[in-house]
Amino acid sequence: MAERYRIVDVSQGWAGPMVGFMLSLFGAEVIKVESARYFDWWRGSPHPDALPGDQRHEMSPTHNSVNRNKLGVTIDLAMPEGKALLHELLAVSDAFVENYPPNVMPGLGFAPDEVTARHPRLVMLSMPAFGSTGPDAGFRGFGTTVDAMAGIALAQGYADGPPLLTPNAYGDPTSGLTGAFAVLAALRERERTGRGCHIELSELEATIPHGSERLLEWPAMGVNPERRGARRPEMAPHGSYPSLPAENGPRWIVIGCRDDADWCALRAALDDPEWARDPALDTLAGRLAHHDAIDARLGAWTATRTHREAMEALQSFGVPAGAALSSSEVLYDPHLHDRGFHVSSVHPVMGTALYPGPVIRMSKTPPSAIRPAPLLGEHTNMVLRDILGKSDGEIGALRSTGVLDNQPRRKG
Amino acid sequence: MGKPLDAIRVIDLGTGIGGGYLSKLLTLYGASVLHVEPPGGDPLRMTGPFLDAEPGLERSLLHAYLRAGQESLVLDLDDAAGRSELRHRLHGAQVLTDTSRPGVLPSLGLDQAALESDFPALVCTTLSEFGSDGPYAGYAATPAVIHALGGWVHPMGEPNRPPVVPGSALGLYMAALYAAIGTLEALRVVPDVGGQRVEVSIHEAIVATMLYETVSFQVRGVERKPTGRRFLSGDPLQGLFPCKDGWCGIQAALSWMWVRLCDLIEMPELVEDPRYRTPEARGKNASEVEAILAAWAANYTGEEIMRMAQANRIPCHTVPTAEQVYASPHLAARGYWQVVEVEGRDVTVPGLPFRFAGEERVRRLPPAPKLGADRSRVLAAANG
């Protein structure tokens, strides 16, 4: 039987925690390690007006999404007792995930070469934003930092406007997925060699390939990518168009004609109006030259329909068209609903909510039901007792030192 | 550290960016990939940017980058001989990857039952736009259309102006990663369950990242608005700002970063100012906060802002052009870039997304195959 992996996850935010979440869907047991002072920042910063017993750190929907299916323990890694406990966990684990600037783990006594020397079967994944070497090695980054530094932000936005960040902190999910791939690859290699290894994943280097479509314009032609709004040089028309507004704001639809056949289909869908029969529009070059005029006509047609009505009418003729769905519209999208994509989970503090389900659909080994994200330190006793074999007396003695505290404290 | 996938043979029917990045990940870490292309070639070959802006089957840098080190075989799968050849190839393979629309593989006699009975240990990974069922399964799509239906387009732009679309087909790369992960897991459990199907919908891969829309919406009850240069409409501390030489990014999303930022801009009194003391207050007075930061940023270059802020552990950054990304001394010092030959010229392309400790740096990638060029070599290997 394939092994059931155990993963120790001391990472924070989105990118690092996503690694363990992905592997948990394949049955891995993931132990998320935080502490009272250094709990996952994606739980939210301590609020200036927080009173004792404040539960805001359990209410972060984003944190509670990417940390589902994990056991949560609190161990203060600044204390010697905490360092010893982490080593005990690493000794019985297959992978170890961290995403701090490169001085942090060595400072705590967990330098990668020392960790892999002491635990030779362990795969350790480090995910510093910019890597552990090079002049900018100590730089910190959110996913948004990384997507801008990869050249992605400057290449998107209105042609007459500023660059734009991606709305999903692109460097984060990208690096998390790349990290999950990396850990599985290293564990596969361990089957052959019996040895683990250290993996370094610079979030910047994992994200740059995803912008290659635009980045390669530099070596290809010696030009920097321009911002081009919703248009594409190889498709016309291509854009976002107004539709009837919803109760809570405007709505839009994205339409793109990949080729002349799509253009003919669009004409048919619009009942072949006279303006569209202009032979000047028969070619891509012609449509690009008259893009503004096409947009005005097409936008007038979409503006009298809801974005879904327009999409369905165009799709029935085979025209690529997609409603630009808002938050609630994605959450309750009928296609995703039919496919059972979002799954419900009951969190003891945040309550019942829908979360993204498994993106990877495995025909024979689908994931088990997904458990809610752990409360801060929720499983400390269980992990110490059942995995590390500590007695109640030993756990009590550790508690008295404060190393297992789980009440949020301000950082000193 | 060896190459974890070096015993893996992949038959790849995939096309486009998604199929390309999936196969690239498998190739980089050791798999040998036979790219089975339709007559006329993978449309990626005719996707720019092209060398010197001149289109040509062997001139797409995107193809050269994503397909470096693979083999290419042209098969007409509408023809019985082509299908027979494909089945022959599959006997020596562990993985079949595919990006065709739902229903295409079954029409080639490769439905799941046939695959399972004839190739019981084969992992079959499919990357499709909207998955194999549901109302959008048959929809026509461009990358932007999939992003729109995934909620990615709605927040991108200025309020009251039609949104823009992502600058490139980002969601396709992400979906390829999901497919690559699923492929590794399926290979891992072959001894237990045999081969299986691994399916990834690009649409769902996109939706899974829109946590600020989907999951946050349920808790906060507020639709994500177009946010312009900000990351989130209610937070002025995460966004792009004009600076002395273009644009910079200010990212001070955590409370302690705001405190340090106030020190950095020499306005420590802002920390206790009731207008800015809490995240809620800063959200309410977001335009004022932005004006304060913009006035400060205007005095410095992006590079200066990045270095001053990073010295204070605040993750501010430049907003580099492609030329500047390529010229980064940091990436050069790390030996990041790789080189691939295209039409006799060396082209610098992005390097490894991660590294195993002690792994030897590879600077030069083997070239991407010319269309169908490896047929004789592939046949010889099969017969040998």
Question: In which range does the helix fraction of chain A lie?
Answer: 25-40%
Q: What proportion strand of chain B?
A: 5-15%
> Greatest chain-chain interface?
A-B, 156 and 156 residues
Strand order of the largest sheet of chain B: 3-2-1-4-5-6
Q: Low-confidence stretches of chain B at least 5 residues in length (pLDDT < 50)? A: none
Distance between the termini of chain B: 30 Å
What is the share of helical residues of chain B? 25-40%
The tally of helices of chain B reads 17
Sum up the structure in keywords.
heterodimer; A: 412 residues; alpha/beta; B: 384 residues; six-stranded parallel beta sheet; three-stranded antiparallel beta sheet; 17 helices; 14% strand
Question: Your description of this structure?
Answer:
Chain A has 412 residues and is of the alpha/beta class. Chain A contains 18 helices and 12 strands. In chain A, the strands form 3 sheets. In chain A, strands 3-2-1-4-5-6 form a 6-stranded parallel β-sheet, sandwiched between helices. In chain A, helix 1 links the parallel strand 1 and strand 2. In chain A, helix 1 packs across helix 7. The model of chain A has no long low-confidence stretch (mean pLDDT 96). In chain B, helix 1 packs across helix 7. At the A-B interface, helix 2, helix 5, helix 6, helix 7 and strand 6 of A face helix 1, helix 2, helix 6, helix 7 and helix 8 of B. Strand 6 of chain A pairs antiparallel with strand 12 of chain B, so a sheet runs across the interface.
Write a brief structural summary.
The complex is a heterodimer of chains A (412) and B (384). Chain A is α/β, with parallel strands linked by helices.
Write the layout of secondary structure elements.
The complex is a heterodimer of chains A (412) and B (384).
Chain A: E1 6-9, H1 15-24, E2 29-34, H2 61-66, E3 70-74, H3 80-91, E4 95-98, H4 104-107, H5 112-118, E5 123-126, H6 143-149, H7 171-193, E6 197-200, H8 203-207, H9 212-215, H10 217-221, E7 238-246, E8 249-256, H11 260-269, H12 284-289, H13 291-302, H14 307-315, E9 321-323, H15 327-331, H16 334-338, E10 342-347, E11 351-356, E12 361-362, H17 380-387, H18 392-401
Parallel strand pairs in A: 1-2, 1-4, 2-3, 4-5, 5-6
Antiparallel strand pairs in A: 7-8, 8-9, 10-11
Helix pairs in contact in A: 1-7
Chain B: E1 9-12, H1 16-28, E2 32-37, H2 61-66, E3 71-74, H3 80-90, E4 95-98, H4 104-107, H5 112-118, E5 123-128, H6 143-149, H7 170-188, H8 190-193, E6 197-201, H9 202-207, H10 214-220, E7 238-243, E8 246-251, H11 255-264, H12 279-284, H13 286-297, H14 302-311, E9 317-318, H15 322-326, H16 329-333, E10 338-342, E11 345-349, E12 355-356, H17 375-383
Parallel strand pairs in B: 1-2, 1-4, 2-3, 4-5, 5-6
Antiparallel strand pairs in B: 7-8, 8-9, 10-11
Helix pairs in contact in B: 1-7
